Amino acid sequence: MSKKVKFTIDGNEISAEEGKNLLDVACENGYYIPALCHMKGHKPAGSCRLCNVKVNGRIMTACTTLVSEGMEVITEDEELAELRKTILEAMFVDGNHFCPACEKSGVCDLQALAYKHKIMSPKFKYEFSNKKVEAEVPKIMLEKNRCILCKKCIRAIKSKDGKNIFGFKARGKKLEITMDEELAAQMTDEDIQRAMDICPVGTIIKKEKGFKIPIGKRKYDKKPIGDNVEKHKEKEKD
Ligand code: FES
What we know:
Elements: E1 4-9, E2 12-17, H1 22-28, E3 52-55, E4 58-61, E5 72-74, H2 78-94, H3 109-116, E6 140-142, H4 152-156, E7 166-169, E8 176-179, H5 181-185, H6 189-198, E9 204-206, H7 219-222, H8 231-237
Parallel strand pairs: 1-5
Antiparallel strand pairs: 1-2, 3-4, 3-5, 6-9, 7-8
This protein binds FE2/S2 (inorganic) cluster (FES).
């Protein structure tokens, strides 16, 4: 049987299996920590940096931190809120996120987090990304100018024989998502739907058929992101 460790999150005692990552444990216990690149069950990528929390006073990404005995975790304070807001603002200016014209509006995690962090206009200069949209494959397209480089599609979507369909090309400022056109052309409608759903923004788009639920009636149109896991805070309010 695996060892249990005790520690605190926002002053409340938590017990969890040693070696689990802090982000999953926090979520299982009803604490919401913003995250754009984490997928439960997959190795953490640690790329979006949004899941920053304080562990014994030090700022660390929750998805790459393993729970350990006696740790003291703070998930929310002014400094963390400001840091997360700055990271989100940097993502907004780096890509082209024109929410009212984006197919993913209302189910986009980036947009929902911007609302949650009350971003009106970013403090940085817009980059006006001008990457080529990959639209040659009949049923799927990549709007690279919306990509936040979270690697979710690279890590989670593979061909039947385990090959990568999505990948990165170039480096530094020019780094961009790309797809293997031959493998992408073999994806089933279900595979493409899964890839589109995994993408936290509007980069992966299934062609021909739009989203079933119209804009205005989608999940984040109804409820802010994170509300479904804020059980602990709900309890506190009761
Ligand atoms: Fe932890 Fe992205 S969720 S760095």
